[in-house]
Design a protein that fits this description.
Number of strands of chain A: 0
Number of strands of chain B: 0
Structural class of chain A: mainly alpha
Radius of gyration of chain A: 18 Å
Radius of gyration of chain B: 34 Å
Largest sheet of chain A: none
Oligomer: heterodimer
Shape of chain B: elongated
Number of helices of chain B: 5
Number of helices of chain A: 9
Order of helices and strands of chain B: HHHHH
Structural class of chain B: mainly alpha
Largest sheet of chain B: none
Chain lengths: 172, 113
Amino acid sequence: VARTLAGDRSAFGILVERYADQARRVAHAALGNGDDADDAAQDAFLRAFTRLDQYDQRRPFGPWLLRIVSNAARDRRRRLNVRRTEPLDPGLVGGGARPDADAVRAALHERLRQALATLPERRRLAVVLFDVEGYAHAEIAAILGIPEGTVRSEVFHGRRRLRELLSDWKEE
Amino acid sequence: MFERDEEMAAGLREALERPDRAQFVARVLAAIESTPAQPWGWLERWARLGIAAAVVMMLGVLMLSRATAAPATGDDVVLASVDSTRRATTAFLLAEAPPDPGLLFADVVGVER
């Protein structure tokens, strides 16, 4: 960060390398669409770069960046006028025919994405930031701009809903 | 209750993973390279600070001038002012002839005649 602020643009590349996966996953969770997610993640990195002087270097960089990612995803959703999550095909989430063994993994991922998409945006971000990215409740609260208690509640309800939606898969 | 759910985490992580990592990083870095430098960024920050300081100063001056230039403040003054305004308005509405512009002006600027 200090090197970038001193004018070394290439130093920002280290941050991009380090946080690219997280930023893309979080944007993907927020937007549902992978290409839009990458665009939002790129927007977020550019915003972070131009506003780097506003970053408090005593705090960890990840939550600061992911807050920008979350906002960038929200802005992109507004700009693209992304459709609200349509009701899911019950066959996709609620237990359709199980595909053949070769496609099991891909199908599971698709079902996870579909299940995740049924959650409100804040809830799915809370689940992903907690379970996938490993952030603490307090950090997630800072990223999403909500109280810590609300984060706990969102994670709890989000997980419970995901487990419900995927229960039949697990039984199989 | 708030232990991480490793199984769900692993599944979600894979489900949200995006391909072509190197391509994405290169794309972001290219966009950053083409972002124009902002030599006036410091000016913007100082301008924001300057505006905030000016507002605080103006408020301070306003409060100070009120405290020093208005010795007779209080409810009675306010009530008298309200009462005077009410009487003037009633007189104005009940008058048959149009008001004298001189009187009106004097009333607006608060000069007693």
